[in-house]
Amino acid sequence: MTIRPPYAAAGVALLMVEIAIALFVHDAVVRPFIGDGLAVMLVYCALRAVTPLGVGAAVAAALATAFAIEFGQLVGVLDLLGLRANRLAAVLLGTGFDPMDFVAYAGGALCVLAAEAMPSFRMQWRRT
């Protein structure tokens, strides 16, 4: 397995931001929407860090993961799995369905695609 350090570093940085948002931000915009967009970026960076997936495949996989989790919230996957009381599962899988989250996920995916399309970004990150 080949590690791509720039993506791994970006993934760690995004994870730290997500943790900070979860612990300290309790508003109606940053936590639910910015956080969801960043989650797609985090999954994307994790995939690019440890898999040979290209940009398109990794964005699609990150978006599919976010959508699957959101649909899991719709059907009550925490209850189906008996994990409602498990705090870690609740944080990772979410507790409530919101169709607007799909917009946030798509926004995160679009930000990734925009960043990857920038020549300076590509030159710096694609060396690995």
Question: From the structure provided, what is the oligomeric state, counting identical versus distinct chains?
Answer: single chain
- Average pLDDT for all residues: 92
- Secondary structure tally: strands: 0
Indicate how many domains the architecture comprises.
1
How is this structure best described in words?
The protein has 128 residues and is mainly α. It has one domain. Helices cover 77% and strands 0% of the residues. It contains seven helices and no strands. It has helices spanning 5-24, 30-50, 55-75, 77-80, 87-93, 100-117, 119-125. The chain is globular, with a radius of gyration of 15 Å. The model has no long low-confidence stretch (mean pLDDT 92).
Distinctive features:
128 residues, mainly alpha
Summarize the topology.
Blueprint: H1 5-24, H2 30-50, H3 55-75, H4 77-80, H5 87-93, H6 100-117, H7 119-125
Summarize the structure.
The chain contains seven helices and no strands. With 128 residues, it is an all-alpha fold. The protein has one domain (5-125).
